[in-house]
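Quarterly update from the structural biology core.
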Amino acid sequence: MAIKAYRPITPAQRQKTTEDYDQITTNKPMKSLLKAKKQQAGKNNQGRITVRHRGGGVKRHYRIMTYNLPKGLTLEVQEIEYDPNRSARIARVKDQNGTYYYVLADTKMVKGTTFKTGDVEVEDSNRLPLENIPVGTFVYAIELTPGRGAQMVRAAGASAQLMAKEDGYATLKMPSGEVRKVLASCEASIGTVSNLQHQNVKIGAAGRKRRKGIRPTVRGVVMNATDHPHGGGDGGRHGSGKAPRTPWGQLTLGYRTRHNKKTNKMIVRSRHEGKRK
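Predicted structure, tokenized:
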């Protein structure tokens, strides 16, 4: 998989790059595994904006993903597909009973390969409990709670390394650098999530963001004082010596927002350690 550059016949194409989509085998998704996805424009069920700078964009269908495959399956990869709702590629797979699923594709999956779930051998793409996986193995699509399905390490090119197993817990080094524990009975898939070059793509054009449903972001310092804590002034230097704030006056940038004390004991080393406080 490589990054594709354009012959610059317009100013935007001088910077823009895309993925080459060489892993994808079909552009026709399976209709029975699709459902409509309504554009919410960042608003909740009360009509209030909860995520700013969202709206517009191309229409999409949601692919019904399976993050909690039943045990004892032997699955064959039928197709590798593009999914507009995530950075990774997805695989259309069929089990021995003829049932189809959409799952996250990893770097080793190609059309025709097979993998298994449950108490199986340690091979690429197989899904099994962490307690059965050797220390040092790279895994993805990891459960936080046994039986709940994959919740961690699902983005393109991501993988976590199994560092240790002790007292019923597995220690994982996450893509962020955080080292944390999860129950050893949690399941994970062996390998690395597909589409490794996703992080190297340059958007290159404003319209490309708009087609993704992302609207422009206006800086607070160019607003009026009534609209933002950074706004106002005579056009001179802005915000010097002041802590950056959100449009509602709350501290931001460096202000810790995590307050989940219930799971603090599971984090062995924070991803913030070693960074400037």
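The helical segments are 206-211.
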